[in-house]
Structures are given as structure tokens and as C-alpha cells.
Amino acid sequence: MKLVHLTRLFLPLSAAVVCTGCLDSGGSGSDDTRIGRINYQGLSGLTYTTNSQSGETNEAGEFRYYPGETLSLKVGKLPIIDNVPAQDFVSFLDFQPELREALKTASVNDRGLKDHRPVEARLLPNNTELQNRTRFLLALDWSGNVSEGEGIDIRPRVIEQLNAAINDPDIPDTLDFTVSAQDFSAADSPANRILQSICFYPEGDRLCGAPPSPQEIEAAPSRPENDEDLDPNTVYKEDVQSLADRIREAVRTLEDVDSEQAENYLERELASISNHYGRRYFLKDYLASHPASDTGIKTIGIRKIGGEAALAEIEAVSTRPNDIAVHSWSWQTAEVEYYVAGDTGGESDIRINFRPEDTYRWITKDIRVIID
Questions:
Q1: Cβ(329)–Cβ(351) under 8 Å?
Q2: Alpha-carbon distance 156 to 158, whole Å?
Q3: pTM for the whole thing?
Q4: Which of 16, 173, 198, 287 has the fewest CB within 10 Å, making it most exposed?
Q5: Residue 173 CB contacts under 8 Å (≥ 6 apart), including other chains
Q6: Ramachandran class of 62: left when φ > 0, alpha when ψ lies in -120 to 50, beta otherwise
Q7: Closest to 284 (Cα-Cα) out of 335, 243, 330
Q8: What's the pLDDT at 22?
Q9: What angle do CA 253, 92, 280 make, to 5 degrees?
């Protein structure tokens, strides 16, 4: 029998958002709001507003919303993005309408199945606005180095200084993330002027002060050649120069977060979100065996942990259709049908590829079928 390979399309409704909340514990707040998250590892310290909710994202990057609402984000008083569809995970790609639209059309991978990952990979290095916004938010992280498994940590001290900076009439109170990367990261760009006004050390730290002037450095005595001649109560020229260098090096700019770092961060976050979706679904069986004489139609069901496996699209292929053939599939019932087509000793993997209705992401699950 000829293998059927058609995909039934179903356009997801904006109200059909399913949230994973904290996120595996149910995805709802204490009332009937849902809990969404900025990226997978989180982004803390953002002020968020939806049509009905407002607050500040916590360490996990969580916010509350009702399905169908949009989300706006600020760092302190500085706008980051407006009117993004609120959902269980909001990545930086979701911030931009043209990227959201591009993600709706999946690519085809080497298995011949639809896959969102090549589309994500294509979009990451080729969008200046995405790169600019990501670099700026990474630069606001307290440590300045967001490693794998960590979220972006924007602390109250950073927000206070940022707000003070944009209150200066000489510094813009908005950023244009759509300008060229060269203009956005120029030494005197608005983004860099904001960053340079922020000290990423505790209040009162000497590195938060102004560096010693050339006159102060020159006025300090030189260090004696012999250590026994050192005066513990004297600050020498070399010490003053070292302090000045350390203060200047402590000033953060966009040069500290290049495009490669931004892309690596985005790749990690997107992969983590995809893996999370994959862990929410499973097949009723991962191994099946049938005698060669049993050629009746068999069914594989897709299940979701803690809920109904509501799908928007589904497709399936057999790696050895002469042994095990795929008969049909249904996104409505979340099932794939197959039958034995070969002789005893044959076997095949059936690869079931599906897209839940609350995401553009595709999930693949395999079942091994043996003819015994």
C-alpha cells in the first residue's frame, strides 16, 4: 500500500494558549490567570503589563496573563517591547511580528518531516533588531556573563541607575533597536551611554566612583624601589594609576556582549523551550510487536502529561515501510494508524511528528515495531 504523507492543518486560536507556569506544576496563578515566562531560564526585573495584569518578572521570568492578552515589557522606565502575544513561553523572537510570522512556516529536515529548528537557526544571525535587543538585555545582567543554565538577572540597583540615566535630558528615554549594529554599539550611542552610567557593583564600592584624574595620579609619590621603604599609610602613583585603570575597565559597554554571545544565548534558550515541550508529550507505547499474520490496523496514541494532547498538525513516516506501513493519522484524535506489511523478523521505527496547538514548535516521537 502506498504511504500516505499528508499534513492536516489547523490554525491555532490565540485564546487556546496553554501555560506551563512554574512551569510543570500546572501553569495557573492562584486565581484563573495563567503564568507565562520570558525565555526558559528567565529574565528578572522587567516591568510587565498585559491588558489586565501588571507586575515585575521574578527570577524565573514569570508574568501573569489571561489567554488572548498581549504583553509589554520595560526595564524600569525604559521600553523594551510592546504588544507581544502573551503565552506560556515568550522568547526574544516572539518580540517581533515579522519573526513570529516567519516561525509559522516550518522547514523540512533530513527525515522528511517538518521542523521549526532550521527556521529558528536561520533567523538568529540575520536580524539586526533581535541582535541589538538581545545584546542590550544581556549587558544589563548583574554578572555580565550569562552562562548556560542561567537567566538574565537585572537587579534593582541596575534599574535605579538606569532610570536616573534616562532622566538626564542628554540621554534618550527610549532606544531604537532597529538601527544598524554599528550605530547601536557605537561608543557614544544611546545604549552605551545608558550602560556607561550604571555601576555593576554594590553601592559605595570604589569602582563606582570617578577615576582619579591625571593630575591626581601625577601628584602621588612613586613607589620606592625597595619594599622596606614602603609606607603603609601612603598611596603611591602606581596604586592610583591601577585604581584608575580598574574603574575604567569596570565600565560596561556593548563591546562586552558581542553578536556571537547573543546568538549562543538565544540558541540555548530556544533549545530549552523545545526540550520542555518535548518532555510534556509521550506515546502510549514505545515498543510494539505483532505476528506477520496480524495485518489489522493498529493505533498509536499521543499523550500529554497533565492534560489533553490538543494538536494542530501531525504527520508520520515509517523508516522501513516494506515491513511496517503507516496507514493514516489524525490531529483530532492525536493518533497514528499502521499495519504489518512484511515477514517475520522485520522491524521498523515509526516517527510521529506533531505540533501542539499552543506553539509553532514540532515534536518527534518514535515507536519501534517488531514483526515476531
A1: no
A2: 5
A3: 0.86
A4: 287
A5: 77, 78, 166, 167
A6: beta
A7: 335
A8: 37
A9: 135
100-109 contacts at long range (C-beta below 8 A, 24 or more positions apart): 103/360, 104/360, 106/355, 106/360, 106/362
Q: Do residues 367 and 283 lie in contact, with contact meaning Cβ atoms separated by under 8 Å?
A: yes
C-alpha cell at 13: 486560536
Q: At 23, is the pLDDT very low, low, confident or very high (cuts 50, 70, 90)?
A: very low
pLDDT of the residue at 29: 57
φ/ψ of 301, rounded to 5, equals: -105, 140
DSSP one-letter string for 214-242: HHHHHHSPPPPSSGGG--TT---HHHHHH
- Measured in residues, the chain has a length of 372
Which pLDDT does position 294 carry in this prediction?
96
Confidence of residue 28 (pLDDT cuts 50, 70, 90): low
| pLDDT > 90? residue 327 | yes
Q: Which CB contacts under 8 angstroms, 24+ apart, belong to 18-21? A: 18/88, 18/307, 18/310, 18/356, 18/358, 19/87, 19/88, 20/88, 20/89, 20/276, 20/280, 21/62, 21/88
- Residue 57 burial by Cβ neighbours in a 10 Å radius (0-12, 13-18, 19+): buried
List Cα–Cα distances, 362 to 247, 332, 345, 347, 359, in angstroms: 48, 16, 32, 25, 8
Q: CA-based angle 128:133:136, to the nearest 5?
A: 125
Grid cell of 252 as nine digits: 560596561
Long-range CB contacts (within 8 A, 24+) of 42-45: 42/151, 42/152, 43/137, 43/151, 43/152, 43/154, 44/151, 44/152, 44/153, 44/154, 44/155, 45/75, 45/153, 45/154, 45/155, 45/156, 45/158, 45/159
Read off the C-alpha cell for 183.
550605530
For residue 159, give the C-alpha cell.
534599574
Please name every residue paired with 288 in a beta bridge, in sequence order, or none if there are none.
369
